[in-house]
Amino acid sequence: MNPSNLQGEWRWLGSGFLLMWFSGFGQTYYIAIFAGQLKSTIHLTDGGFGSLYSVATLGSAALLAWAGKFADDISVRWLGAAVLGGLAVTSIGMANVNSPLILGLVFFGLRFFGQGMCTHVAMTAMGRWFNQKRGQAVSIAGLGLPFSEGLLPLFAVGMISLVGWRNTWLVSAALLVAVGIPVLITLLKHERHPTRGPLAKEHDSRVPDRHHWTRTEVLRNPTFYLLMPITLAVPFILTGIFINQVPVAEIKGWDLSLFAASFPLLAIAHVVAALATGKLVDRFSARHLLAVSLTPLALGAAILVYATDPLALPVLMMVLGINLGMSSTTHGALWAELYGIDNLGSIRSIITAVTVFATAVAPGLIGMLMDHGVALEFQLQVMALYCITASLLAYGLRPALDRIAAS
């Protein structure tokens, strides 16, 4: 393969895209569409709903930290199919939810299989399969997420109006079983060439001789923990915004349907930013882009605080889309760049678990603070300042990250 392009790699890039797209059924932006019906059906407050969501997501993060290592040992073809199957089963469970306990179990399954394992398997595969064009491979496969962000909320709103919210989840399960699993198995009929050893020497996936860190070594490295405040910012803040669409719409006096209508703009911005960032990662490295990746998120939080005109919402969604494109591509390539690929699945499982943990804490914490009178606008101001602080931290870590990548 000519390392200057990825034209011959569509099967493997497509498998990553597919897993990222179907992860949407377990992502906050899809689940949040059903928040009103779920709260009404089970009689939950904003804080109660957020706390239940948080506890379930925390449980999924704990399991993910252990289960993520399977990405090192099981082929993407069969592990991915099993993950999509699990997501389908929990989607059926959501269609039959009738109590807080059942809802908590369903949230656990959706978050573990969808947000957790789907994205973990996809991004681990891209990091392992590609080296010279890792940034572009991550950005292309990662496009499944913005396409999902753009289509699934509209799909949910349309299906709810046609068949009701419970049947919408049954349709979701049918798509996973009838489309997702067979297409993934077909795409990966032939496994990608190995990334190391004699068979890798003529492929882009060839990696130079370097130290490949173990998970134990990573956990003993202080710089890893200094990266966590940067890693936590995007999942925490975006989850907080998306899960609170209803309160935001009520506070601002905006029509809730405008959120769903604006998601395609978020998706478009996500796509453009991801593709551009992929090329920048391959040219400058992911570690050198960390410091600027949170800037759009700080701007987005500020817009949401001070904007009153409904027309600000489409602008906000585009800014958040830019942030998603930059951060997903940068972080998708970062861990293989820093720590090598031999143990990438077990290392990334920690990162993914931390990310899921952040999305777990956000709804419960923000909802609890709102229940106790802390204005959402004030919380968003704090989030904007946090992003600025985390960006400065990333800039200060550049020398240490360069040393790790060169080890």
TrEMBL record:
User: Boundaries of each Major facilitator superfamily (MFS) profile domain copy?
Assistant: 12-402
Name the domain of life: Bacteria
Q: Has the keyword Zinc-finger been applied to this entry?
A: no
A single Gene Ontology molecular function, please? Answer: transmembrane transporter activity
Give the transmembrane region(s). Answer: 12-35, 47-66, 78-95, 101-125, 137-163, 169-188, 224-244, 256-277, 289-307, 313-335, 347-366, 378-397
**Sorted alphabetically, which InterPro entries does this protein's record hold?**
MFS, MFS_dom, MFS_trans_sf, Proton-linked_MCT
Key words of the record: Membrane, Transmembrane, Transmembrane helix
What Pfam families does this protein map onto? MFS_1
Q: Which residues form a coiled coil?
A: none
What is the protein name stated in its UniProt record? Major facilitator superfamily (MFS) profile domain-containing protein
